[in-house]
Amino acid sequence: MAMAWVWTGMVALSVAFGAVTGNLGALGGAAIEGARSAVELCISMAGVMCLWTGVMEVMNQSGLSALLAKMFRPLLRRLLPQTARDGDAIATIAANLSANMLGLGNAATPLGIRAARAMARGSGGVASDELCLLVVLNTASIQLLPTTVAGVRAALGCADPFDILPAVWLASAVAVIVGLAAAKLFARVWRG
Amino acid sequence: MPLSELVVPAILCVVGVYGMRRRVDVYGALTKGAEEGLTVLLRVLPSLVGLLTAVYMFRASGAMDFLGRLLAPLLTALGIPPETAPLLLVRPISGSGALAVGSELMETYGADSYVGRVAAVMLGSSETTFYTVAIYYGSAGVTKTRYTIPAALCADLAMFLMSALAVRLFFD
Predict the structure, then answer these.
(1) Closest by CA position to B128, among listed B98, B166, B158, B164
(2) Do B103 and A156 touch (CB under 8 A)?
């Protein structure tokens, strides 16, 4: 429902604004142009995007995600000591995070949900500190190759769609660190 | 020839050869992954049609520029280009909405411009916070999410600040 509000709000605001600024006449053309450009964008980004999701799948099957998961496990054991008593849960979370890093959302989400279910068992619907941490980690996840964005950039005629990679890695790494720090801090001061 | 021109062929070659050494059906995996990319596109296309229609109307009516000007003092003080204001508002709520707003920004200002690059980095550096929280807690039966959303929004804010800073760092 949230998106219904956002969409209707944007359209209604546009009409109201157009009436005030005298741009009302341009709105019909803009609407048609927007719908057309959505399809155009999808078609022109499809090639680059599919190529790189394909490459990520090859990396995944070659054992890259297993390797990443193995690297995460010691770190996760320190971050989530309670959950770590169950070795299986930590392995699931490590697989969840590494699938996210490879941009394999379809594989990552079911794994994350399985871990979240196990962690929420017997808590009476209240998120534990460690469950909060897991969800925050997932909202700020690092993606090694942002294929969708690269697809858009290629569609718009970028010479090098991946030249933003170092900036993406830096920004998402900082987001993960800040998210973890905020969760740890809030865990101490949060009431209720 | 600049080194960056070699990156794509090198990655393709290394991934292929390494996969073969690990006895992976490289071509089968490549096409399976490409199919998955297509599924993502098919899922995002209907919402992109709806959202880009709204975003284009928003731009044409002058509301987009107004929103930018409204938030400009705050965003400029934080070092974030004020043109990205609509993207900041949509990013935590909707993935396809952010894609629509972000690609419109890249198109309007140019994919290789400062604003276009910052928009791209913001799109690539985070998940859709509210969607992720809803999916995980919804399926785990958790109703009291406590400080999850404030902490996740702190991470988003840090990501926005860092995106602008990183683009200036790497491209100036």
Answers:
(1) B98
(2) yes
